[in-house]
Amino acid sequence: MQRYNVAPLDRLVEQFERLPGIGSKTAQRLAYFVLNMPKAQAKEFSEAILDAHEKIRHCEICCNFSDKEKCPVCSSDTRDKSVICVVETPRDAIAIEGTGEYKGTYHVLHGVISPLNGIGPDQLSIKQLLARLGDDTVKEVIMATNPTVEGEATAMYISRLLKPMGLRITRLAYGIPVGGDLEYADDMTLARALEGRSEF
Predict the structure, then answer these.
(1) Strand pairing of 168-171 and 57-58?
(2) Is CATH 1.10.8.420 correct for 1-37?
(3) Distance (Å, rounded) from C-alpha 138 to C-alpha 101?
């Protein structure tokens, strides 16, 4: 990466390069954008980052991000507490919430089981999930991990833990996206589409 021999600018570019999906050119553009901000706006930007770090925590129930002990979903009286949708990240919960169709609750794992990356079940919030199932409130757990090798392995691991509890364990149906062509779909997507087929 090109260096500017201006230490504060080099450090700023390096920090932006650490963000996922940001290459050196984009990091440079972002650094210059920040430098051209009015000082008050730059201060507001940096304070927002620090504020988020200091105030955002994990919901004591579902482990999603929250600025209170309980997130808005867990503290709502209108959500169906008998259904838990298990997702990998807070972003996944936001994606499902964006459909406006799901009325249950969530549980955020904050990752997937990945032995190659040194991530085992103890690094995820699986114990917190099991703690939520102590009474008879929950009837169904939806496994909504991503359809990757790690996501599937994590879903299978959790399912094996939950099956003896007599809960209904379901998996999101995966299939052909609207507007997609069968010839371009991979084998796993086609297999999932066949498994998840419904009445027409």
Answers:
(1) unpaired
(2) yes
(3) 19
